[in-house]
Amino acid sequence: MVKIKIAITGTPGVGKSTVSKLLVKKLNESDNAERWGCQNFEYINITDAVKENKLYSEKDEEMDSYVVDFQKLNDYVNNIIKSKSKNLIVDGHISHLLKVDYIVVLRCNPEIILNRLKERNYHKNKIKENVEAEILDVCLVETLENSDNVYVYELDTTNRTVESIVDEIIDAITHKKTKYGIVNWLDDYFYMMD
Length: 194
Ligand SMILES: Nc1ncnc2c1ncn2[C@@H]1O[C@H](COP(=O)(O)OP(=O)(O)O)[C@@H](O)[C@H]1O
Ligand SMILES: [Mg+2]
Description:
Elements lengths: L4 E5 L6 H12 L2 H6 L5 E5 H7 L3 E5 L4 E4 L1 H15 L2 E5 L10 E6 L2 H10 L4 H12 L2 H8 L5 E6 L5 H13 L10 H5 L5
Parallel strand pairs: 1-5, 1-6, 2-5, 6-7
Antiparallel strand pairs: 3-4
């Protein structure tokens, strides 16, 4: 039975975890499960998996983040798919760097990202880095660099309900749709860069 690995990527604060959790729930509902070969979808949050399983080489104190060991992370993900015989939803802002079948790149208005990251009390350097990454399409560009034989679907979540975003993703993966180049934050939000 073919198994599918779907990466949900995007700048921190874009809504990956919120969307991924509802996506897994909906995909595992019975009528959807049948379409996917009756195999359940397993959810992996990369940040949690890296911490819990020590899939890092070092900790970056200044940015309060871990330097991920990609080899270990890839092995971890592949082991799950082999041993549990499940489809996977991998949630994380580096999930597009893994070997997956489908990459969903979530986008969101940079002003909204800024406010969400402020609410998280991130260090100002980390907020700036992430807001600029959203404006400059960093996750999308990295995705396209890593997209040989991968379906890429970019989706603007701004002012959308989580439910409607999830429905669009299910439609996209079901029909193997690809779409990207849908936002241009740089023209409208250049003032946020300095
Ligand atoms: N479509 C949406 N509409 C409104 N709020 C959202 C939406 N998606 C996410 N959020 C909110 O934005 C914040 C960040 O979402 P989260 O899923 O944690 O992002 P990420 O996992 O990408 O860092 C959370 O407070 C979440 O409730
Ligand atoms: Mg998250």
